[in-house]
Structure of SchA/CurD-like domain-containing protein:
Amino acid sequence: MPFAAITYDIKPGYEKELAAVFGDFKRVRSSRVEGASGEQAGTILATAVFLRDDTLVRVIEYTGDLEAVARHMASQPGVREVERKLKPYLSRPRDTDTVEGFVATFKRSLLNTVAQISVRDLPAPA
């Protein structure tokens, strides 16, 4: 299962406030990601958020098409609420008020995958 990591440039010194923003996160309605025609385009399996100094990173474990995952996230009320609550703490504004803006920001914020290793990728024991 692939992972994606996106960064947020934030103002340092707000660790407690940022932890509260993500602590109140409302899960997505469904982990099922639909494509443009309503077909299943992927699944969001897990997310995690990491913070240090002026960098916040959201890691997403998913299956399927990453752009469809980004579009799905853009339409979720909990994700939109987090993006709204993060605005005062951002050192670089993010255009996430529309689906198109969210997807473009997601792509710009995406870290390059250098390596991914999982026990799920090992062959089954004989």
In short: The mean pLDDT is 90. The helical segments are 15-23, 66-74, 77-86, 99-109. The chain has one domain: 3-112.
